[in-house]
Design a protein that fits this description.
- By secondary structure, the chain is of the alpha+beta class.
- The chain contains four helices and twelve strands, in the order αβββαββββββββαβα.
- The strands form two sheets. Strands 1-2-3-6-5-4 form a six-stranded antiparallel barrel. Strands 9-8-7-10-11-12 form a six-stranded antiparallel beta sheet.
- 29% of the residues are buried.
Length: 304
């Protein structure tokens, strides 16, 4: 090999190593920046199904990932676990069967930040079926201020661009933060503007960033405007991908919606959370009404 070719080879090697190191440093910076805003949310849900005159109740526990969107404890997450209608759309691409009443009610919500053991109580503050997002409000924070993600600072994604999302493991693994990578593979304009995504990012309700740490949007489901005859609207393909942790794709009904679309929803949810928090505080302060004294039993009339 000539000296000139050897010099070119050395230069390219150094350049590749430097690029890889920069990308690694960039990913680490994003994880360190975003991880404090990612919370684990444990929900106990009561499911009531009525059909054909019969009723069945069931209670289940689920663990979700959420992101802090206001310093006072408003957490954004996917609405699908709270919405039977959305679940039907995802699994079957259809509306609720006639005669069936299906209701999902959260009876307990606990939120954990970082790798802390402390669990905070929270309540469901607002839901949005169009963007498939829900918001829970944490109680008992006192003077603690959380680190929110600013959805108003979002930038537009570009076709082919690599993006990153940050999540956390469960308590058994010390709630360790980790990242997943994806790639913008397309864009839709209807029923709303959003980007298609390929890769390993699959946590619905969480924000997606560029490798430089700029917010792009939020991963969520979008129902189509028109049903496709015989098509897999969102259903089995999406369900199996999410169940197996195999990443997401816009072809299965999962998209990244721009942060600017979500920002107004956060503001509305924050106002609603404040109203509900005030109502809950008033109820707690109301004195408990004493129960009415038991009335003495009337003597039974005897005989004639």
């Amino acid at each position: 090999m000539s000296k000139w070719l050897w010099a070119v080879f050395i230069s390219l090697t150094v350049l590749c190593v430097a690029t890889a190191q920069n990308e690694t440093a960039g990913v680490q910076a994003v994880v360190e920046k975003v991880a404090p805003s990612i919370a684990n949310v444990k929900v106990v849900i009561k499911t009531t199904m009525k059909m054909g005159g019969e009723s069945m109740d069931e209670e289940s526990k689920i663990s979700l990932q959420g992101v802090v969107v206001t310093p006072d404890g408003l957490i954004m997450l996917s609405n699908s676990p709270f919405s039977p209608k959305r679940m039907m759309e995802m699994l079957a691409g259809e509306s609720m069967p006639a005669g069936m009443d299906y209701k999902m009610t959260p009876t307990s919500i606990k939120v954990t930040f970082g790798n802390e053991d402390k669990e905070y109580d929270a309540f469901l503050a607002a839901t949005d079926t169009k963007l498939d997002l829900a918001f829970v409000k944490v109680e008992g924070l006192g003077d603690r201020q959380l680190t929110p993600v600013d959805l108003g600072s979002a930038v537009d994604a570009k076709l082919g661009q690599q993006v990153i999302a940050v999540s956390r493991l469960t308590k058994g693994y010390d709630y360790a933060p980790y990242f997943a990578l994806g790639q913008i593979c397309g864009e839709i304009a209807k029923p709303r503007r959003a980007w298609m995504l390929l890769g390993d990012i699959s946590q619905l309700g969480l924000p997606v960033f560029t490798l430089n740490g700029e917010l792009v949007g939020v991963l969520t489901t979008i129902a189509p405007e028109v049903k496709e005859e015989g098509g897999d609207t969102m259903g089995f393909t999406l369900f199996m991908r999410l169940l197996s942790g195999g990443g997401s794709s816009g072809t299965g009904g999962v998209f990244v919606i721009p942060g600017q679309q979500v920002k107004p929803l956060v503001e509305q949810a924050s106002r609603r959370a404040a109203e509900l928090a005030a109502e809950r505080a008033r109820k707690k302060e109301e004195p408990t009404k004493p129960s009415a004294p038991a009335q003495p039993a009337k003597p039974k009339s005897g005989g004639k």
